[in-house]
Amino acid sequence: MNGKDEKYDFDSVRARAERGDITAANFMSDCYRDGHYVERDEAKAEAIILELAEKGHVASLGECYLYGHGGYAKDEKRAVELFERGVEEGDIVAVGDLAYCYRSGLGVERDDAKAVALYEKVIGHTSYVPVIHELAFCLCHGEGVQRDEKRAVELYQKAADRGCVPALVSLGACYSQGSGVEVDKAKAIELLGKAVEAGDADSYFYLGYQYANGDGVDIDKKRALQLYTKGANMGVVEAMEHLGVCYLNGEGTEVNQHLGILYLKQAAEKGSGSAIGHLRQLGIVYRREEEDNAEEKLKVVHGACMNT
Question: What Pfam families is this protein classified in (predicted)?
């Protein structure tokens, strides 16, 4: 397992990766995939994993099978076998990957308790922030373990202090809602602001929502619109929906029905039930249809504004 005091900001991770640290190199891939600290580059993220797999890193090879990277055919069961092997070899990346499979039901039957057991086995002697953050999430939401919001906050803080961007968002939510800690709206805004600076997609929506509603900060509809736009451009469904409503209602911008409907359609296509509801109010009805490849897609079937 990796050391207890390692940092996971991009500069620290890159420095360790350049010295041959496999765990750091794998985490660099996550940064490029998610756009944390660097510009999002999914091709570069995949290339890193493929290179690590070619060098014999078992967990990275498992990720190739799990996601179908490069020329690897998707094979979730094969991925799980490789993650299990990595866990036996003491690879912290494999611990996180195998726990993810148990929590998601990929290649194995879903079992949140087994995922938590994997996290707990290593949590006392690792600084690997994905494991710390995910255990905190399970504790905060009672997934596979009895809810313990105070311990969740402690772990979120530990991960955030080491450079985990998602932990900034999660910790911000705790301060905003008073989960495991006293409500502190200003602290929540500060944490979300740091996540935005680091490029986290979800944080654009959450901070935008705070500005739109004056929750811990003065209402600023224009700032909310800017943040929603960035989140929507990064694929955040909630940001697409709220951006569409902003354009329809002229919040932070002039009314633009065309853009409003466009963003609502994008959110609906990604499965947003509330976006579908907004469209229905406009006379645009969506329904789910099974395609030949068994993937659900949303399609417009009729409506007054179909050609908008």
Answer: Sel1 (PF08238)
Its pTM stands at 0.87
CA 272 to chain CA mean position, Å:
17
- Count of structural domains within the chain: 2
Q: What CATH number is given to the structural domain containing 158? A: 1.25.40.10
Please list, residue by residue across 197-223, b when 16 or more beta carbons sit within 10 angstroms of its beta carbon and e when fewer do: ebbbbbbbbbbbbbbbeeebbeebbeb
Among candidates 245, 274, 270, 240, which has minimal Cα distance to 257?
Answer: 245
User: What digits encode the pLDDT tens for the residues 247-270?
Assistant: 999 999 999 999 999 999 999 999
What would the two tokens of residue 13 be? 């991770």
Structural domain ending residue among the three candidates 176, 199, 222: 199
Q: Which residue has the higher pLDDT, 291 or 111?
A: 111
Give the position of tokens 């990720």.
63
Domain that holds residue 261: 201-286
Q: Are 219 and 155 contained in the same domain?
A: no
Could you say which of 169, 199, 229 is where a domain stops? 199
Which of 50-54, 57-61, 131-135, 298-302 is least confident?
A: 298-302
Residue 46 within a domain: no
